Amino acid sequence: MEPHIRFCTTPDGVRIAYATMGEGSPPIISAPIWFSPFKNMAHEPRVASIYRDIASKRQLILFDRRGTGMSDRDVDDFSRGALVRDLEAVIGHLKLRRVVLTAWDMAGAVAIEYAHRHPNRVSHLILTGCYARGQDLGHQDAARSLAGLMRSGWDVAPEMLPTLVMPGVDPETARHYFTALRESCSGESAAAQLEAALTEDVTHLLPEIRTPALVLHAREDRMVPFELGRELASLLPNARLVPLDWEAHWDPRNAAPMLQAMDEFLNVCGQSSAATETAMTGAFRTILFTDVEGSTALTQRLGDAKARGVLREHERIVREALAAHGGSEVKTMGDGFMASFGSATKALECAIAIQRAFAARNEGVGAHGHAPLQVRIGLNAGEPIAEEDPDGRGDLFGTAVNLAARIAAQAKGGEILVSNVVRELVAGKGFLFSDREDAVLRGFEDPVRLYDVRWREE
Fold first, then answer.
1. Mind listing the pLDDT tens digit for each residue in 337-369?
2. Could you state, in order of their start, the residue ranges of all structural domains in the chain?
3. At what angle do helices 344-363 and 304-325 cross, to 10 degrees?
4. Which of 21, 174, 275, 284 could form a disulfide with 55 if both were Cys (CB 3.0 to 4.6 A apart)?
5. How far apart are the C-alpha atoms of 261 and 265, rounded to whole Å?
6. Which long-range contacts (CB under 8 A, 24 or more apart) does 76-81 make?
């Protein structure tokens, strides 16, 4: 299964080399970094094996970004917008309606930008070893020195790059990687691409991307620290984080866990796709609402800017819990979230994780000068109705959703309230409840029995 190279042209006149492998829909397209995937396959048999594995299950599309490989080399614009044009050109040329979009390290920002611009075209987003903000990498001075070395001595720079770029990588991987890099582009091009990557910041785009996302990141990554991958997953509304037990940024010797995580992610999301799609067919979902208690008073006390910073902590904690427990963010209302789960057990575990995270945060707020955050949570289960806007963003409606919102409004800060149907769904799972008796909820004629979840560790 060897790739057959073809060409297309971007709107700004750059010729892009691409190839397809395998069959299956939706196809996977990989946003490339600063070396050619075709050169990488030629020099690294383990990478070629990984690509063949992916292409055995569905169509795989690879291409050389501008300035590298067989694409036009005589370019000097490596901005995110320019690189997105490369991606748009290939997808448009192949007339693809929906794709699985993957990216690795410095290509992450390009994939995120494309997913934000074209949410209806990206069915799944897979980010490996990526980051949201180049300045967070923490070794700016060394990277700039490296760029200077690339420009002045490209023949010797690749011999020094492994230690600087991928500390901890095994010698064979380093040799293959940097041989492919040196053959893919000039020293000037490599330096310009590195400098452009260091200035990237797509943090503001992440909360608006509702595409199901998989974030893969090596635990011992010293090039892009694991914390940056964790932050990326926490800011993407429908992301799940899978740590990889690699001792370096990249380890093709142990690719099986990465491939397995991708397969599971695509199969699970392909079957249920998203909360909105399953709900349209009458799927049973557990709905979770969070709400920051006293958010208006918080804003009046701290001012808009400081209060927004505090509320961002709420967003981070909730999104991390959703990613860890398989929840799908439906929408955020500024000081609260609506999320959907296929499992009532996972939804309740997520709610408990959220309250414990806020309790841990609030323990030391006095010493650090932060404002405490009290969050109320309500859960209900049923068969919601879904609608999608033209960009593919979905929302859930119906009695099951309305009741979950009313239950959350009945809770106090630090409480988790659930309906009787949720309590019955998790019976025998080890959760503890206190009966709150019946409550009269706005919009519902009959009183509703509520239960308080005892989440605090005794």
1. 999 998 999 999 999 999 999 998 888 765 445
2. 6-272, 275-453
3. 140
4. 21
5. 6
6. 76/192, 77/12, 78/189, 78/192, 78/193, 78/196, 79/196, 80/109, 80/110, 80/113, 80/196, 80/200, 80/202, 81/113
pLDDT digits (tens, 9 = 90+) for 423-448: 999 999 999 999 988 888 887 878 99
Spatial distance between the Cα atoms of 95 and 298, rounded to a whole number of angstroms: 50
**Whole-angstrom Cα distance, residue 434 to residue 106?**
50
Say how far residue 67 (Cα) sits from the centre of its chain: 27
- H helices of 120-186, where? 140-152, 157-165, 171-184
Tokens of 372: 């405490």
Strand partners, 111: none
Q: Which two tokens stand for residue 442?
A: 């706005």
Please state, in angstroms and rounded to a whole number, the distance separating the CA atoms of residues 150 and 2.
32
**Do strands 285-292 and 239-244 pair parallel, antiparallel, or not at all (unpaired)?**
unpaired
Q: Where are the beta strands (DSSP E) in 252-384?
A: 285-292, 328-332, 336-341, 375-382
Give the integer Cα–Cα distance in Å for 202 and 83. 14
Give the DSSP letter of residue 335: S
Residue position matching structure tokens 């309790």: 359
Name the token pair of 88. 């748009």
Interatomic CA distance for residues 398 and 396, integer angstroms: 7
pTM score = 0.64
Angle formed at CA 434 by CA 433 and CA 436, multiple of 5 degrees: 130
Tokens 């009458």, located at residue = 282
**Residue 130 contacts residue 104 (beta carbons within 8 Å):** yes
Give the CA distances from residue 149 to residues 35, 140, 142, 157, 242, in Å, rounded to whole numbers and listed in that order.
Answer: 17, 14, 10, 6, 35
Q: What is the pLDDT of residue 334?
A: 67
> What gap in Å lies between CA 15 and CA 30, rounded to an integer?
17
Question: Residue 59 and residue 35: Cα distance in Å, rounded?
Answer: 21
Q: Domain 275-453's class?
A: alpha beta
Which of the four pLDDT bands, split at 50, 70 and 90, describes residue 269? low
Strand partners, 418: 379, 451
**Distance separating alpha carbons of residues 258 and 244, to the nearest angstrom:** 7
- Give the Cα separation of 381 and 254 in Å (integer): 40
The 10s digit of each residue's pLDDT in 62-83 is 999 999 999 999 999 999 999 9
CATH number of 6-272: 3.40.50.1820
Indicate if the pLDDT at residue 59 is higher than 80: yes
